[in-house]
Amino acid sequence: MSKIGKTWWGQRFIEAMETFTDPKRLLRGRQYLSTHRILGWRVERNRVLARVRGRMSPYLGFYEEPIYELHIEFLPLPESAWDNAIGLIGSRAGFLARLLLNEMPDEIEKPFEALEIDLLPRKRKDIGTHCSCPDSENPCKHIAALYYLLASRLDHDPFLLFELRGLPRDELARRLQKTPLGAALASALTENGGELFSAESYFSRPLPVTVPDTVVPRDYWRGAKKLPSGVEPPEPAPVSGILVKKGGDFPPFWPKDVSFVEVMDAFYEQVRKKAKDWM
């Protein structure tokens, strides 16, 4: 099974739940996740609701696989805590720029720690859970499966943690843009092209060109004049890897434990060496 908790926020989330959940139940919960028994889940404000398919147990009277309803409710941070955190984050250009570009800084927890605020849940009371299964222990293995699912989702979308603690992504961006530095940065980002919007694709779409019937394709590509010989070849353009880095170290399609960016950096370096040898 692919490793869950590849990023620091995913790892910290797992560490938190390990402090107040029985290890055997965690193991069974991870097995539930690996066998695709979570039928569906959704986020409603600070609550995560899910449906989990249980197992047949004739000994307990279950002759068909039961469906359980469960939810996890996160304790939202007080409004005053968010005000203080937004004020501190909004005064730091590095954090602010990445958040406004929809990227999560690796050290985002430091401003919260400076204010003695726990962004990630640390105590059992920070998370409330309920499952309709007959297990008297809470959290049960079904809740544990949902824990692991959330940890994997946090690897790919760390902004989900802000929403679960009471501040949706859109509200976060709006409040950051109201800070003095945030307003200046948002203005700089949009002054050349107006308001930001999502593009249909990363690449420009080709446009059809009408070629007159009198043009012979072979002559068109050869050109009217012969190209001069002895022209020095231009320096190869460096590969910036913007598109590779845009998805982060662990994009959704990348199931491995090693960073996707590091793998691609090594791959590009090998391509450069091979190309140099061929030339």
TrEMBL record:
**Keyword Zinc carried by entry:** yes
Entries under InterPro entries matching the protein: Znf_SWIM
Q: Name one GO molecular function term.
A: zinc ion binding
Any Pfam family hit: SWIM
Tell whether Metal-binding is among the UniProt keywords: yes
**Record-linked PROSITE patterns:** ZF_SWIM (PS50966)
Alphabetically sorted, this entry's keywords are: Metal-binding, Zinc, Zinc-finger
Query: Where in this chain does the record put each SWIM-type domain?
Result: 115-151
* Protein's recorded name: SWIM-type domain-containing protein
